[in-house]
Design a protein that fits this description.
Layout (H helix, E strand, L loop, with lengths): L5 E6 L3 H17 L4 E7 L12 E7 L5 H16 L5 E3 L5 H10 L3 E5 L10 E3 L9 H6 L22 H4 L5 E5 L11 H10 L6 E5 L5 H10 L5 E4 L4 H10 L2 E5 L2 H8 L4 E4 L16 E4 L24 H4 L3 H11 L1
Parallel strand pairs: 1-2, 1-4, 2-3, 4-5, 5-6, 7-8, 7-10, 8-9, 10-11, 11-12
Length: about 325
């Protein structure tokens, strides 16, 4: 491909997936700074990349609603993308929708994983596989590696705004992200209350971050703890939360999107893994990071790649029996 070129990256999965995919365009831009980079994400995730220093086109697919209406919007988006005349399209997303979008662009180079259901619509495939010790950013890098000089994956990165609400924050504070879309990924609510209590004399302020839908959980934790410096931040944007994490003494999170937010700004991170495991390649990437899991030999852990709405065994020992002392020790380690 002679340059400069027009490149599209497609990742229409969840927030964490979009953040991890950012390592691909970071690597591409470092190698080819004159290329025009576009990104396509699911609606809502485009907020992650607002005012980005080198993304020149940001496209979103509205995935909510009925199946038929979603795919009508998908086809319309694909036709708009075709008008951009991309030279190459790369997608780590392994679902039909990304294959349809990639094919509709009519780009001469289209790269996906060999597990993609529409891989025959692509011009090149790369191996995927959940091999222990291989992170998702390393797997994603395989999609672009033939065009780069380096086989080493780049870190994911976001570029938080400099907000007044962040600039006026105390000198030392911690960030907790207690919520998760999957119940078996979420350390139980009483554990978060106990953590806040245990930190009462150790850190002045703790900010509980999450989306608007997480507000009831965050408020219950705030009301239940005796720590007077706990504040709820459920209305701020994703980049605001990333900027807060960037300045925090530590970030405590489940295996969820906020963990990847923390990685994107290299925040000191303690990640609690309940039903899942970092062996799948979705662990934290910050230079200061600790993963905490139960020491119990549970034959049911991990119970899946993404967790479940409820514990398949009904006991949830991977969360209930993970004690706060181990998490407190991990916070000391990264601070």
């Amino acid at each position: 491909m002679p340059g400069p070129r027009k490149i599209l990256f497609i990742q229409t999965a969840f927030i964490g997936d979009a953040i991890l995919a950012s390592a691909m365009w970071e690597a591409w831009h470092a190698a080819f700074p004159e290329d025009e980079i576009h990104v396509c994400v699911r609606s809502g995730n485009e907020a992650l990349f607002e005012d980005h220093p080198f993304i020149q086109g940001l496209h979103a697919w509205e995935k909510r609603g009925r199946f038929a209406s979603r795919y009508v919007r998908l086809i319309r988006l694909g036709r708009r993308l075709r008008q951009e005349r991309f030279d190459a399209v790369f997608t780590p997303h392994r679902h039909v929708s990304s294959g349809v979008l990639a094919r509709l662009t009519n780009a001469p180079i289209r790269s996906c994983f060999d597990q993609h259901p529409l891989r025959h619509w692509f011009t090149r495939t790369a191996p995927h596989g959940f091999k222990k010790g291989v992170h998702e950013v390393q797997r994603n890098h395989r999609l672009i590696e033939p065009w780069l000089d380096s086989a080493t994956a780049t870190m994911p990165r976001l570029y938080p705004h400099s907000r007044g609400s962040i600039a006026s924050m105390p000198e030392k504070f911690g960030v907790m992200a207690p919520a998760s879309q999957w119940a078996t990924k979420q350390w139980p609510e009483p554990k978060w209350v106990a953590m806040c209590d245990a930190l009462e004399d150790k850190i002045r302020c703790i900010y509980l971050v999450g989306g608007p839908g997480d507000a009831p959980l965050l408020s219950r934790i705030q009301q239940a703890t005796r720590h007077k410096g706990v504040e709820v931040r459920s209305k701020q944007g994703l980049l605001d939360s990333a900027g807060m994490m960037q300045q925090a003494q530590w970030v405590l999170t489940n295996d969820s999107g906020p963990m990847h937010l923390a990685s994107s700004v290299n925040a000191p991170t303690v990640a609690v893994f309940c039903s899942t495991t970092p062996d799948y390649g979705f662990g934290p990437l910050s230079s200061k990071r600790v993963v905490v899991e139960t020491d119990l030999a549970l034959d049911c852990k991990p119970c899946g790649l993404h967790g479940h709405i409820e514990c398949p065994k009904s006991h949830f020992d991977c969360g209930n029996r993970l004690e706060i002392e181990r998490v407190l020790s991990a916070l000391d380690e990264v601070s």
